[in-house]
Amino acid sequence: MRAVQVFAICAVATIGGGAASAQEIDWKKVDEAIGRSAAVSGDVHRYGFPRSDLTVTLDGVTIRPALALGGWVAFKPAHGGAMAMGDLVLLETEINPVMAKLIENGIEITAVHNHVLRANPATFYMHVGGHGDPVKLATALRTGLAASKTPLTPPAPPASQPAIDLDTGQLDAIIGAKGQANG
Questions:
Q1: What is the pLDDT of residue 167?
Q2: Cα–Cα dist 20/172, whole Å
Q3: Where are the domains of the chain?
Q4: What is the pTM of this model?
């Protein structure tokens, strides 16, 4: 019985400690460091970096940034700081300068690959990750992105949602969840 009580106290202390670290993060400072506001879901803060500056085609069809050119970085409280991970959309000429800045500032590169074969211009996807002080992580990520032509100012919201030429109700029924338009 004593062992159960000790375990329960340790579990509550551990859970409580995790919640405290989430509350200690000043997300406004993280937003300022990365240069935009986050989309928040639970304790995850996600920052989008769509490559709206690029006109990419695949076999003559223009690819919308929301479809396959949406870079992002997300933060989650972890271990007294934050864990960050993301996927940056880059041109081939941007890979080495961005990678050098990220590594120099403590961000790990976990993959560089192509999502869209035959795209013109060719786009590549750099998976990034890091752990530690969330403001330092955000600053490092922004410094890395600044070595590319990724737009660093948040995009202006559209005047109205563009028409979607799909039966989204049928898609929702097939998937079993309600979707949301993204550009």
A1: 83
A2: 37
A3: 26-155
A4: 0.80
